[in-house]
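User: tokens in, sequence out, please.
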């Protein structure tokens, strides 16, 4: 298993950051364009809540794959966790945490994942997946930060 942690400082209120991180439409817009990620099962719009299950389809490493995750922990506006129910990994857990620091919000993502295939998966985690998944998270978080920081209340 590998653990990837990113921290993003966002100049926006914690409640807004928490909502944007749970926004399904925004989620599919904030990931790498070449993955062509989309929701194929579950709610396609709105905000995920505790207990929600969503299936995403995306292209990674030139392979179209599906990943189903369920929100297993939910404490607004501080934390939510989604765990893989099915997908390409042996296991995947994504912990989203939010903390107010001065006038900003610190969004911390912790991704715990295990690749399948025993020793081959262990090598893939260390040689490819750690770097790839960290870049994937950072790209998403930068888009979320841009959105939050230019947000204008309606």
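Assistant: Sequence out:
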């Amino acid at each position: 298993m590998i653990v990837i942690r990113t921290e993003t400082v966002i100049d926006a209120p914690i409640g807004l950051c928490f909502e944007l991180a749970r926004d399904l439409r925004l989620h599919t817009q904030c990931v790498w364009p070449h993955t062509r990620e989309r929701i194929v099962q579950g709610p396609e719009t709105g905000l995920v809540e505790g207990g929600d299950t969503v299936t995403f389809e995306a292209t990674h490493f030139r392979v179209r794959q599906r990943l189903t995750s369920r929100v297993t922990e939910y404490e607004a506006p501080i934390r939510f966790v989604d765990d893989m129910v099915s997908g390409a990994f042996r296991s995947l857990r994504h912990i989203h945490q939010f903390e107010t620091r001065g006038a900003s919000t610190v969004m911390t993502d912790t991704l715990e994942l295990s690749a399948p295939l025993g020793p081959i998966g262990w090598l893939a985690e260390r040689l490819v997946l750690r770097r790839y998944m960290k870049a994937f998270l950072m790209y998403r978080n930068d888009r979320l930060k841009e959105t939050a920081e230019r947000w204008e209340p309606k």
